[in-house]
Design brief:
Shape: globular
CATH superfamily: P-loop containing nucleotide triphosphate hydrolases
Strand content: 25-35%
Structural class: alpha/beta
Helix content: 25-40%
Bound molecules: adenosine-5'-diphosphate, magnesium ion
CATH class: Alpha Beta
């Protein structure tokens, strides 16, 4: 489904990705592990179009996408979350999901869209937080909300950067169930995580990154 060949990326003199090769097949959960600064987030940025690689190709279902801007990559079915969340903190939980809805064109959502948002809020256990500002719910709930936005976006492939880092057990268990559910629905997931139990519970394949290469 997604194939990376010989991806290189440097920031100034610092070589961050040094010839990354891999292939992701539809319907599996892949977990990228490796020390801080090993290039995991940079790799997600390359796949999602936020960073252009210096060298190498990214192919999605046979289409070369390495030079595409993020919105185009997203239209082709790749959604992502951010390690630093990047929610619209001054908008409500409900509005954040609404903004992420696939094919949202109008400021005023119709009845179907409204009930779809409420359905997603239920899936990510945030119905009770519907009308609170995204910046005022707990950190764990904010992580759930970022995954809710990804679900709303309806991408085939989800790139999830550190879904459970720094959150409590209850929310971690919820996210484990969510990832399993997304996999059952046929989604392909590439996630970055360090949490041992979480990795064991959710991963089909583990990719170890060291000094900008997968080993
Ligand atoms: N936009 C950027 N500009 C300069 N350096 C960056 C940028 N993004 C990442 N880096 C550097 O690249 C290295 C790898 O970062 P990152 O991919 O975030 O690692 P990881 O997610 O594995 O912790 C780090 O040394 C980081 O400081
Ligand atoms: Mg990172």
């Amino acid at each position: 489904m997604l194939e990376l060949r010989n991806i290189h990326k440097s920031f100034g003199d610092v070589r961050v990705l040094n010839g990354v090769n891999f292939r992701l097949e539809k319907g599996f959960v892949y977990t990228l592990v490796g020390g801080n600064g090993s290039g995991k987030t940079t790799l997600v940025n390359v796949i999602s179009g936020f960073i252009r690689p210096d060298e190498g190709s990214v192919e999605l279902k046979g289409k070369r996408i390495a030079k595409f801007l993020p919105f185009r990559v997203n239209r082709l079915g790749i959604g992502r979350t951010f390690q630093d969340l990047r929610l619209a903190t001054q908008m409500t939980v409900y509005e954040n999901i609404l903004l992420a809805l696939e094919k949202r064109k109008f400021a005023y959502p119709n009845k179907d869209q409204q009930s779809h948002v409420d359905e997603i809020l239920k899936i990510v256990s945030l119905s009770e937080k519907r009308n609170e500002l995204a910046g005022e719910i707990s950190y764990g709930q904010q992580k759930l909300l970022t995954i809710g936005c990804c679900i709303a976006n309806n991408a085939d492939m989800l790139l999830i950067d550190e879904p459970v880092a720094g959150i409590d057990k209850d929310n971690r268990l919820k996210i484990i169930q969510l990832v399993k559910q997304l996999k059952r629905e046929g989604k392909t997931i590439l996630q970055i995580e360090h949490h041992h139990d979480y990795i064991k519970e959710t991963s089909d394949h583990i990719l170890q990154m060291e000094k900008g290469v997968l080993c």
